[in-house]
Request: fold
Amino acid sequence: MIKERLDENEDIHTLIERIKKGDREAFMTVTALYQKKVFLLAFSFFHNREDALDIVQETFLRLYQKVHLFRKGQNFQNWLLQIAKNLCIDFHRKTYSKSKDYDREKPIEEMNLALADEKDPYLSSDLRGIFSECLKKLATKQRLIFVMKHYNQLEYQEIAQILGIALGTVKSLHFKAVQNMRGLVAPYLGRRL
Reply:
């Protein structure tokens, strides 16, 4: 796995060098490789597709503008996700902090949940939808760490570097996020975890 990551990093460094020289094709390749990870990070932050897409666009615009600041030897994915995280924080401060009606979560009573005795899986609730709703209820840092670990498949050390927090804090917040997710998902599955 280390060899695969090294080769991947060597390839990304080649693409970055080409972008620094103005190669648009290299830029499009990097965008295609990383836009999903940036989207997942932004979506976990806002739970709003349009805002997440805006962050994706802004992240790759910043990449293009600041690619000269990237140094060989750095982990590109961590560097890029750090840019995205900072943009999320700035956007949140500008957009959501001014608004008191940020709470857009539906009450449980309004969710389209299946009946407990429903036998037909096609009539039951969408598990991904339930999971997504439960994920929204996590504290912001727990949610970010959960998404980075399970959706972006980052290591704890990488997450700590991106978020600028201690490794132990990342592990603790991830543990709390997993415990909270179990508690939130359990009622929908009809049991306690």
